[in-house]
Automatic annotation (TrEMBL):
Residues 354-413 form the DprA winged helix domain. Residues 323-362 are annotated as: Disordered. Residues 86-295 form the Smf/DprA SLOG domain. This is DNA protecting protein DprA. It comes from Paraburkholderia xenovorans (strain LB400). It holds the Pfam family WHD_DprA.
Amino acid sequence: MRTLPATDIELAAWLRLSLAPGLKPAALRLLLCAFGLPEAIFDQAPEALAAIAGEAAARAALAPTGPEFDAQLDAVIAWREQPGNQIVTLDDPAYPPALLTMPDPPPLLYIKGRLNLLHTRAVALVGSRSATPQGVEDAERFARELSVAGVTVISGLALGIDGAAHRGGLEGVGSTVAVIGTGADLVYPSAHHALARQIAVQGAILSEWPLGTPARAANFPQRNRLIAGLVSGVVIVEAAMRSGSLITARLANEMGRDVFALPGSIHAPLSRGCHRIIKQGAKLVETPDEVLEELGFTRREAPRAASGPAHAILWNDAGSGKAPAVNGATTVRPKPATAQTAETSAADSATAPNPAPAHRPVDPEAERLLTALGHSPTTLEILATRTEMEDATLQSTLLQLELAGQVTVLPGGRFMRASHG
């Protein structure tokens, strides 16, 4: 057996336990509480381990490593040596304290960027991958104002609302954390490579998955539990009835975190999930200040965080604080998601497209304008910004949609999709 430095020997023991098939984090935590560091676990008789965590956990913990383990360890050590990369184990003082309140904290965390953000007060903003323009704007605004108030914005790096939340957090003071469902050396979706690079420099990226782990549907509900565990509250911006965001809301509620939701039009499919959890006890919020007030956070102007060193941070493409203060935990009890629901909502196509209107326009400009309109009353100025249409084109297209019964003109010069039953 090769000789390793003491720090690498300790890392190897943690890695062995984190990779042990069938050894769940909750069982591992029981063993660590009973025997101390991983090396001490390996010195125990199977009967001693079984008495603490059960026979299955004992067998998993003491199973010999496979032939590929040395290569995996070398890859982890090499990844850790890259600028900005850190590996934090469960016994490390730098381990995020909020995760220690969970029954099953991961034994090993892979972190790129500012580790200190995992010790700050934090709020999660999550929602649909198929977000509407209004939803994207709301997520960016909430995240930006929360970030300016000194709150770290946490999300999952997915398309739609997650990406908007990260961008808003970066526009504030750069305090955003992406919790991902792949290995920390990969980026998923591939469209977020540039965003991930920016987060790794100004914020942080966190993964519990071994390096090289690709995007799998089953990984994302587990990723969602870390998002819920890191924060004091979760804000759902847009969500369909079958949505991974509702899984995050359920997990957050079970951990005693507050759950918030933005309301929307009764005609908007992506408002239905939000309305559902509001009915079940989530707090309806319309402004970031309401979230800050509910969580007992005092708004403050935080200085802009200095960016980290502008070193190159490379990934491959995956595409093939303090413990949270619980102020009046909600009584949200969404029905547990089935395995099929979790896997479906974890994929990029988590929500179905909006149903077609009764008389769908064939003009591409009209299609684009309806998409930009969303399901909320919208001003001409906002539509011009969203569509980047010339004034004459915008006005004529709105008139066409109004005559076709697709758009209603409201008092004050606002426009809204017409309801069709």
